[in-house]
Amino acid sequence: MTDTPLVSELLNDSELHVSSQLKQSPEVVETQGPIETDDLFIDAPKWRKYEQVSCVFADLAGSTSLRKGRWESSTASIYDAAIKPAVSILADFGADFIEIQGDAAFGLFTGKYSQRRAICAGITIKTFGQQVLVPALENRWPSDPPKTGFKVGCAVSDLLSKKIGISRTAHRAPVWAGRAVNYAAKCSQQAQAHEMIVTKPIADSIRRNEYLWYSCSCGDAPTTLWNERHIEKVSGKDSEGLILTSSWCPNCGDLYCERICSGSWRRPDLDSKRNGMLHEKYQQVIKLHEQNSQQIRRNI
Ligand SMILES: [Zn+2]
Asked: N or C: which end of the chain has fewer CB within 10 A?
């Protein structure tokens, strides 16, 4: 056992550190992705700056109530069951950095199609929660299944990073300064289970991509999947976001995800409808027209 430290010494050491830190003006080193945590500075007052990093933040809804009336081991197994696949999904979509924070995880994406990969990772985590996790919990505890699912947020900005803590020990970790992580967390906090909220720059990309913006053709005529959502505690234009409540279609998810992450935006099945779909109000007209033509075909 170590000796009890002297409070006065701890405070003196802290004071020296604070005054030396505040005297220095930190240096910002422009760095190309991918983010390598081994390259982050720790003792030097240097921050690496990465441009346009997309962050996906996934939080397990209602995790405090998971504990209610259950053994702690059940709660622990729900955490493990839920968080590990979310982390694997972030990794498989090529996140450069992933951090687990209890019942939440976030991933940072840089490089080619990073914004698209982040969006697809977010939708996939939400789909996993709704289509895999919840049915499994209902199966395991049929009478009173824990109510949960993922609340997902997504944002993008330049980020500054360095490691903070004690060098050459386990007591150190990268920290991220910039809007992306903070805003993605705010989006996630304001979502319900199985919802994904994104800030404006991400929303703008989604609007420009037919694979993301419209529903597939499996059911009714394609319609807009996202709704406008004002995001609280997010400043300026970034707060003009979007919310998604639907998940990947079991038939189209694989193909759409592949198309999105390889740079496509244009859906061949919408070629004949594109002009009309530029104006949302014409969607209803198209739907009516299709119903009419089906009716006409039936009558013939
Ligand atoms: Zn489909």
From this structure: N
Kindly report, residue by residue over 158-169, the tens digit of the pLDDT. 999 999 999 999
CA of 131 to the centre of ligand 1 (A): 15
CA 234 to ligand 1 centroid distance, Å = 33
DSSP 2-67: PPPPPHHHHHHHHHHHHHHHHHSPPEEEE--SS--GGGS-SSSSEEEEEEEEEEEEEEETTTTGGG
Q: How many angstroms does the Cα of residue 156 sit away from the middle of ligand 1?
A: 28
Ligand 1 geometric centre to CA of 107 (Å): 27
Q: What is the pLDDT of residues 268-293, one digit of tens each?
A: 999 887 776 655 555 655 566 666 66
66, 190: one domain: yes
Instruction: Name the pLDDT band for 69 (thresholds 50, 70, 90).
Output: low
Q: Assign residue 57 the CATH number of its domain.
A: 3.30.70.1230
Any domain includes 84: yes
208 alpha carbon to ligand 1 midpoint, in Å?
Answer: 19
Residue 16 lies in a domain: no
Amino acid residing at 187:
C
Average pLDDT rounded to a whole number, residues 221-229: 95
Runs of H (alpha helix) within the chain: 7-23, 72-92, 114-128, 134-140, 179-189, 200-207, 210-213, 253-261, 274-277, 281-299
The verdict on 228 and 292 lying in the same domain is no
- Residue 4 in domain: no
* Phi, psi torsion values for 102, nearest 5 degrees: 65, -110
Instruction: List the domain range (segments joined by +) for residue 293.
Output: 272-300
Stated pTM of the model = 0.88
